Hints:
The protein is of the alpha+beta class.
Amino acid sequence: MAHGKNQRLRFKRRRNGQTDYRRRMKLLRGGDLRAVVRISNTQVICQLIEFGMDGDNIFESISGQTLVDNYKWPKNISRKSVPASYLVGFALGNRAVKAGHKNAILDIGLAASSPGNRVFAALKGMIDAGLEIPHGESVLPDEDRINGLHINENLAKSVLATKKAIEGAKK
């Protein structure tokens, strides 16, 4: 730890490994909205956030629990799987487009950026809903993983039913 008069203490969130301030400043310099995707122990959380000097402003927020409560997602199926991540991103994209937001930048925080993971499944959902986010096609998961065929045949039916419910709520 830094304790002398000539040593500078790092910010607490940096010391605890919670924030990469260099990456955050790069995202904020663009001035665009940030599509933030976070994976917790139980669910996926997607938010549309704008930087403000007094603190970040959250315009839209969708979580895995919102899928269960509002969009017919079965309670006994994971709320942080690849299909659930896709649907949470899709719901956020629908709400953002409905509210008049068109562009955003993906903010994955300190998550690993391996191709096809849950963060990029949420990105694909946002893109399919009509939100314009810069990305490379090689990082997006394939359709079988998004539909849940790698988990269970019945999950694909749940994904389609939930997607229809989200689209129905858009109108």
